[in-house]
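Fold this complex.
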Amino acid sequence: MKNRLFNTLTLTLVSLVLFAILVVLQYFKIISEYTGLLLTLAGIYVIVSLSLNLITGFTGQLSLGHAGFMCVGAYTTAISIIKFGMPIPIALILGGLMTGLFGLAIGVPTLRLRGDYLAITTLGFGEIIRVIIVNLDSLTGGAAGLKGIPTFSNTGDFILDAIIRFSWVYVVMILVIAVVHNLINSSQGRAIISIREDDIASTSMGVNVAYYKVYAFTLSAFIAGVGGGLYAIFFGYLNPAMFGWLNSVNFVVIVVLGGMGSITGTIIAAVVFTYLQEWLRVFEDFRLVIFGVALILLMIFWPKGLMGNKEFSITGFFRKLFSGQLSLGLIKSKWQQLRLKKARKNDGRAD
Amino acid sequence: MEFIQQMINGISLGSIYALLALGYTMVYGIVKLLNFAHGDILMLGAYAGFFILTFMGVTPASMLVAFIFSMSICAILGIVIERTCYKPLRTSPRIAALITAIGVSTLIENGARVIPVMGPNPKQFPTFESINYNLFGINISMVQIVVLGVSIALMILLNYIVNGTKMGKSMRATSYDMDAAFLMGINVNKVISFTFAIGAALGAAGGILYATAYPQVQPYMGLMPGLKAFVAAVLGGIGSIPGAMAGGFILGVAETLTKGFISSKLADGVAFGILILILVVKPSGLFGKNTNEKV
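Structure:
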């Protein structure tokens, strides 16, 4: 109990401090407005990538339809704001719920499928979504797109607007990280991970594989839908072409790069990816060539990605810091080891 | 009449899907890999044909040269891709190989965009004059006859290779049980390379036919036919050669019928709708065997 309190407090504090730093940096224009925009976009990428990691990394089911889920969430959120004048939080939740419903609808029939079949089915689902949206043009604006989605705030102050936009994304991102992290470390999470390791073995251990697969799928869709909703408000414009198959591949790249089954890895990879995507624009068409090569090389030589399935533990770091393990004692022992090594080397030379 | 007309259009389109689906199904049957880059082989094959045909003009002889050239180029490419990208991952989890295949696909598509002679812009594919034959009020174009003729000839050839040659026997053995085949002295690596080569050659032929039917080449042209051919392979039961052929034809007909009688905007969705339906009702496909996982 004490541990849990400590963990929650530390994590809340760390995220608050990080938030404060980033807001201050933006407010005093220490980082440019463009960087702030990228940070906000990175937040959305973190949300969607985490939802994909829940399915691909933790449950072991490759989904190539996450752009499709985002698409459902984005359109639902946008339409409920424009047509029904709903406030943003409710619209976001509606977007998530709608996408969750779609996730359920696609999750139940594809339960029996695994690996390749599931991948192609989710891909097909993403394409169907796009076809549906193009055909529902009275509601969605069809292929021409949906214009005039109001932004998060309209104070007139440019920096304030940017900060409010960033705060929205950041807060949702922290919530999503908390949900995914707590889920993975709960008994449900262990059941989900056991499916990835071996679904036959986990069935024989009494895990309801079907239930947990659908559970993970629906939750993943919900989160991706919320991410999509934020994306819609962030850009203020939607177009079915924004949610093509290649966007789903981008999220797969992020999850693989960060390490399948690592939350911190995904977060780092999503932020790095967002920046890389912008920096590599210099290379124009070569950008996607580089992505392709990177994906192949990653899989052959570095299949574990950045973090593998390990986590960088913030609470662990602080606990070590407070208990003195990381402070003087550790540094001292490292220093002694170094000196010993040096001494041995010198001795060798003297002989 | 209209219905029969659409059926003929559909069978012509379906034969291209069937050619592509054969590549998917054979590769899947042997290495259990969903070769995402297969649709892009179609694109490369179409480009190879495009270069030959613009260079030599369109005559029956140059058509033949184009087919042979593009099929052999793509067969070699298929082997190269298999050896460099898929072979190192043969023992790793399937998801890793699948992601690599996506990488290969991204690489080929965007590689084609940056290669100066190919470029990102669509190019007109040179085809022969369209002559329409009228048979009892049904129009059959020369293109459709060529497409259907070439694909049926290739399918007969493939059937001979798989069922009538020693290599075909090795292929069947490898797809049945790779380890046992290896123990029986079959050179499994050679068989896998050969399978990729044949699949890619069929894909290349499909590419030229596709470009003849829809006279245009561009780097992303393989994406949709590739996905639909995969759907065709699943529909017929993946791993089954007659299944892939049947699946291709069914899909082609379904698509043109939708285009003709319901809405052309829905045509792309139909393929995936069929996929989801078939996976719900009978995941092993029309001709597939039902396999239960053993521990």
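The mean pLDDT of chain A is 84.
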